[in-house]
Amino acid sequence: MRTWQVGDVMTREVATVVVETPYREVVDVLLRRNVSAAPVVDGFRRVLGVVSEADLLHRIERAGEPAQRRVFESRHRRDARSRSEALMAGDLMTAPAVTTYPEATLAAAARLMDRERVKRLPVLDDLGRLVGIVSRADLLRVHLRSDAEIREDVVQEVLRRVLAVRDGLVTVKVRHGEVDLAGRLDHRSAVDLAGRLAAQVSGVVRVTNAIAYDTDDTVTDPGQVMPVA
């Protein structure tokens, strides 16, 4: 069963700069393309880092401050000061960049963003070349799928293709991304699997599994448990 991947939602036309791009030109690229960050790439479109609005704002934040370096200066403040004095993208950028790939699941990309505290991820191909960029907003697009599309996936992919359930045994209702399953199957394992797989369908917010079963085949028979030597 295929779920949506980063390649399905990423932006393919990416605003980029190079190491030698001047500060003001970086600002122009971000404003003109209406983006908050741009990957810094080399001649082979390999990502060297990312320069963001936050990196650029260090110059504004420190405008008017004394130029001399302070002896007792934290690393964070020293890095900020260094960026405020930078004139080119290569000095402004945050490196190395946190990246992902087109085949990554949306859930994996979301976890990576959360763990690394970034708002977007450059997307690389097998050779490490930039092919797109995915943002938090892009990841949310999966929840714009219609209820009809979600229901079709649950019926066709989960019930028919994976579980081979005959039509009429299970009913599927979807409202605002919330899936309700009802009906009856022979085995509890099939009921549990139907619920788990339905929850993995792209765009599903919640699953209520009310499918009944005739036999609980998930109970372990004590007589089949092998003793530990």
What can you see in these coordinates?
This protein is of the alpha+beta class. The chain is built from 9 helices and 7 strands; from the N terminus they run ααββααααββααββαβ. It has 2 domains: 6-142, CBS-domain (Roll); 145-215, Histidine-containing Protein, Chain: A. Helices cover 37% and strands 21% of the residues. A 3-stranded mixed sheet has the order 5-6-7, with helices on one face. Strand 6, helix 9 (188-200) and strand 7 form a beta-alpha-beta unit. Helix 3 crosses helix 4. The longest helix has 16 residues, at 147-162.
The secondary structure category is alpha+beta
**Spatial gap, N to C terminus:** 40 Å
What is the gyration radius calculated from CA atoms? 25 Å
CATH domain class of the largest domain? Alpha Beta
CATH architecture of the largest domain: Roll
Q: List segments where confidence is low: pLDDT < 50 over at least 5 consecutive residues.
A: 224-229
Instruction: Count the beta strands.
Output: 7
CATH superfamily of the largest domain: CBS-domain
Helix content: 25-40%
The main sheet orders its strands as 5-6-7
Overall geometry comes to elongated
The description of the largest β-sheet is: 3 strands, mixed
In total, the number of domains comes to 2
What's the order of the H and E elements? HHEEHHHHEEHHEEHE
CATH topology category name of the largest domain: CBS-domain
Query: What share of the residues does DSSP label as strand, in percent?
Result: 15-25%
* Tally of individual helices: 9
**Mean pLDDT figure:** 89
